[in-house]
Amino acid sequence: MSEQPVTAPPAPEPPATEPLVTEPPAPAPPVTEPPAPAPYGAATVWAVPPYLAPAPPSPRDRAWVRTALRWTTAAVVCAAVCVGTAVAVTAPRRTDLPGLRTPADGRYAFPRLTLPALPPKALTPSQGADATGDSDHAADLRKLLLPAPLGARTVKGFLPDPTGWYPAASYIKDMGGKPELTSEFSAFGLRHIAARAWVAADGTRTTVYLLQFRADVDAGTVFDGDSASTRPAGVTGLVEDGSIVFPGLVTGVRTEALARPAGHGGQAVRVGYVKVGEVEAVIVMSSSKAVPLVNFKQVVGLQGELLQG
């Protein structure tokens, strides 16, 4: 028997495997150029970087703002109330406020008192007495007369002469026609007299005479004689009243008041004499009842202050 050739069996084929699937690579992001920087200005250069800026306050942090606003509003309201109260208190006169009203004492209401303008470099009697010892008046004496109070009636028959001065003869007649006054005026150099008279609403008549002499010493001599002996016509029995003082008159101004109490028949009269520099003031007040002391002190004091300047 012939031998068959021995052949090797075929090698087994490798097992089939699935092909590997790989994902395609992601496309690269497009390349963009950075934005151009904004142009620099003052605000940009000095601006705070965003990462350094303070965070906005939370609602809880704003509580102090509300508290401050409440206190500010309260302070403004309080100030407005205080200002309104001050205006309400100071605008009316003190005597018009409830609880502060005082009873009227019968004092006269005068218009606003003003001093006349002086010539250049001239001094008032008070200034001159302090600076040079000369207390003469540089102002027109007629402008230093005390005006009539409000509501008073000016005495029509009491008028100055055409020159604007009250005649010396009329004054001598008003003072009882004493012949000594004529020689006295001549000897001591009476220059002129300014005068005014009125009747107040209470019936009190007031006459103010301002006698101007050539010098202080002359007026002083006449003043000494007048305060001792010169009386208004028809008036007798006057007695000196040393209790009356005039605190508004400066030291060195001599004042003297004489009065006759009411009830002795006729007119009640008060007479005051004031000397300032080369001027003597004679104030006569009369009434059928009584001359109120408050009015007498008021008139004499104000006239003396006008003369003092």
Put the structure in a nutshell.
Residues 7-38 have a biased composition (Pro residues). This protein has 309 residues and is of the alpha+beta class. Helices cover 28% and strands 16% of the residues.
* Secondary-structure element series: HHHEHHEEHEEEEH
Shape category: elongated
Structural class: alpha+beta
Into how many domains do the coordinates divide? Answer: 2
* Main β sheet profile: 7 strands, antiparallel
How much of the sequence lies in strands comes to: 15-25%
Give the strand order of the largest sheet, numbering strands 1, 2, ... along the chain. Answer: 1-2-3-7-6-5-4
C-alpha termini separation:
184 Å
C-alpha Rg (nearest Å):
53 Å
Poorly predicted ranges: none
Oligomer: single chain
Helix content: 25-40%
Q: What is the β-strand count?
A: 7
Quickly count the helices: 7
What is the mean predicted local confidence, pLDDT? 78
What does this structure look like?
- By secondary structure, the protein is of the alpha+beta class.
- The protein has two domains: 63-95; 125-308, no CATH class.
- It has helices spanning 42-45, 63-90, 125-131, 168-174, 179-187, 216-229, 293-308, and strands at residues 153-154, 190-199, 205-213, 239-240, 254-260, 268-276, 279-287.
- It has a seven-stranded antiparallel beta sheet with strand order 1-2-3-7-6-5-4.
- A hairpin with a 7-residue loop joins strand 5 (254-260) and strand 6.
- The longest helix has 28 residues, at 63-90.
- The radius of gyration is 53 Å and the shape is elongated.
- The mean pLDDT is 78.
- Residues 1-38 are annotated as: Disordered.
